[in-house]
Amino acid sequence: MSYAYLFKYIIIGDTGVGKSCLLLQFTDKRFQPVHDLTIGVEFGARMITIDSKQIKLQIWDTAGQEAFRSITRSYYRGAAGALLVYDITRRETFNHLTTWLDDARQHSNSNMVIMLIGNKSDLESRREVKKEEGEAFAREHGLVFMETSAKTAANVEEAFINTAKEIYEKIQEGVFDINNEANGIKIGPQHSPTNPSLPGATGSSGSQGGGCC
Amino acid sequence: MDTSDSECFESADEDIQSDEELPKKVFNKDCQNLLKPNPNYELEASETLCDPRTEESKITRQNDASIKLEIAVKGDNESKNSNKASHSSSETEDICQVTSKINTINVIDDSKPVLSRKENVEGDLCNIKQVEQETVKKSRSCAKTKLGSKISKDTVKFEITPEKKKSKVVEKEKLHKTENNIISSVQIVENEKLKVDNDDQNLWDDEELDWGTETKLESDAKHNISKDNTEEYKFQPSPSSNTPQFNPHIGKKSENQSDNWGAWGSWGVSVLSTATQSVSSITSQLTNVIETGLGAADPEELARIDREEKRELKESLGKECEQDIPSEAPSVGFGLGNLVKLVENTGNKVISGGLDTLETIGKKTMEVLQEGDPGLKKKRAFLKIEQNKPVLSQILREAKERAENERNISEEVYMKKMKNYETLFDDHHGLVHLEALELLSKQCEIKLRNLQNSLNGEQYTEFLETMDQIKELCELPDEEEEDQISILEIREKLKKAVTEMNVQISYDKLMTNWEESEVWLNALNMNICDEKELHQQAIETLAQLTSLAMEQFHKIGELLLIKDRRSTADEADSLVQVTTTLTALIGIAAAKFSEKLNSKICESTNKEISGLITNVFFEAANSSSYIQDALQLLIPVLQVGAV
């Protein structure tokens, strides 16, 4: 489970646009039509390989409900990438994009890569938002755009991996300071010769853990 | 002739019972390949005896669904016992009892069909068809000429009785017998012919020549045999009798060979054994052909051989037909022998041909190799250089050792990784929940600081007091309760605390997780379980429990923040309860695992084990500190609610 980098992603967007389903499709490769409302934030993780480097994507799947808005804002900090999701069958979710985008820009670092995602592309018959509109919005705000279907898994991998590629490129370009964890990028644990059976070797890499004994 | 024939029949009949079973297996394959029903027909037909009115032909499908056509001729001649159906060529008593299952049919058929059929089974269906056709024709012709018009349809009852009814059929047969009915089972396709042959070769004489020519013409004859036969026999349907129905099913069902060898007992056996041998030899030869044929055998050659085979087969058939051999066995043997030889010869030809081809290839290869390198000097020199290098096997052995070492190292690394508490804690999202809680906490702190900065004078001091009060509320009791609390109590306490906090979370998952671990521990066979495995499980359990605890703390924080009406004191009290309870649970878990590890230490004073136990307690302390830290992180959340 060693990885070269860890990227923190955050998924945002109105409630019911399929954020949790996208995550489930990406991490578990399955689709769950009925999903419990997300409380605060849920997590998922998956390893991907870019440029023959193992990269762990740690995905924060936030609650879309208005009630959690203030809470989820605090999670934006330290995300390297964000998936801004709307539902192509519900125009209001598209209309709220500006609010979400402002929120994201305000509470995260400026280099965060944002991917605009029009989900539920399998429901073509109920489409309310044209693909061109999504493309236009993305162009206007400097986002990457993609239509996905968490149900059919169409473009789901691509959405997550393309975002990771973009982040990786930014690292290569030196845009991201990988030593600053506020950027949402962590360098993976080196092959530390820790012997777990010896006490003391398990220092707390967790922010608060250990230390008290 | 009469005497010899009849003798043969009688002797064969006597053996029927004992030999019935034998043919089955041998012929199963054959049957499968036979598209057509090869019913055994007991053709009892004497020209003189055949009285259309009295004749009854029944097709009974015995055990194996072979069709037995019994033509019971209720005729003037009642003296014939069906069992002993003596067959004489004489006109007065031409009672042919041809009892043949599909299989037997073939065998009986001059043994030509048998052989040919087996061959066919192995490789050539066409042959089978031809043979069958031939037999059919023979039978037809026989029927025409000798038995011919006298068997009327009405009298011939073709009853296809399922296997279950076999016994009944038998009974019926017996009845017929007693009534002096001549039961002839006519295997229309081939059996008839067999019978005729067996019974009386003379019958065939006239027709033999025709067969050869006619066989080719009748490719479809098989399926129609039954109809044709009936027509040719000129059976005159009687009101009560069914027209003969030879269903294709019959053929299929005939897979199971009937035991009914009829009168062919010992004779059949010998034929069978010969046939079996020939088949096996053919099989092996065919295999050889196939093998050698890869790349070597010329398809045209094979085709030619095949044609020859067929031709010779026909010839031999013709010969046998032509020969009026009183006793059948010799002729059968002769035919079989011929066929076997034929096949062997063919096989040999093919094999030798294949070998020749191989030889040619080898010569050619050598020529190419030696081209421009007489005596292969260069190539030998080239190979010698290789000899100076280490032996290949040695290299391989070294490589294998290296690979094994690497694997061992990687396994060790893997094991270390597996045992790493931090990794496990991360894997179960404990770390990220803690991180998220931290973010929440920071957010609340910022909020509080902003508020604090905006306050002045009394408000400010009041605010600070409140903050301190909440902090005090969240202080954990110095001494943890030493007295062990049960899992049940823990569950109760957690439930109560959650209710007081008035948030929708549950510790069921966490408790279930522990209970499962406990079950695993209790069921553990200490003799089998390795201490490292046990230690790994302990770390895993601790990491899992702690992760779940983190998740709930995180959720509590989130839910408290969006809660409408806050009651900070209750919340703080509940959180303290939760924290102490959870740390107690961690303690119980660690103790339980250590206890198990300790039992290992008694068996073998292993220093490693005590190290493992220490580590379990260390990680348990780690878990507890995570839990207590989580509580600390929640304090700002509580404070925000209080102001």
From TrEMBL, chain A:
GO CC entries: Golgi apparatus
SMART domains: RAB (SM00175), RAN (SM00176), RAS (SM00173), RHO (SM00174)
Superkingdom of origin: Eukaryota
UniProt entry tagged with the keyword DNA repair: no
Annotated keywords: ER-Golgi transport, Golgi apparatus, GTP-binding, Lipoprotein, Membrane, Nucleotide-binding, Prenylation, Protein transport, Transport
GO molecular function: GTP binding; GTPase activity
Membrane topology summary: Lipid-anchor
BP GO annotations: protein transport; vesicle-mediated transport
Signal peptide positions on this chain: none
Subcellular location(s) of the protein: Endomembrane system; Golgi apparatus
Pfam families: Ras
Region (Disordered): 186-213
UniProt record similarity statement: Belongs to the small GTPase superfamily. Rab family.
Protein name (record): Ras-related protein Rab-2A
Lineage summary: Eukaryota, Metazoa, Ecdysozoa, Arthropoda, Hexapoda
From TrEMBL, chain B:
Domain of life: Eukaryota
Chain intervals with Acidic residues compositional bias: 1-20
Glycoprotein in keyword set: no
Coiled coil segments of this chain: 393-454
Biased composition (Polar residues): 237-246
InterPro entries, A to Z: DUF719
Keyword Coiled coil recorded: yes
Keywords: Coiled coil, Phosphoprotein
Skewed-composition ranges (Basic and acidic residues): 71-81, 220-234
TM stretches of this protein: none
Protein name: Protein FAM114A2
Family stated for the protein in its record: Belongs to the FAM114 family.
Pfam families, alphabetized: DUF719
PANTHER family listed in its UniProt record: FI01459P
Region feature Disordered, mapped onto this chain: 1-23, 71-93, 220-259
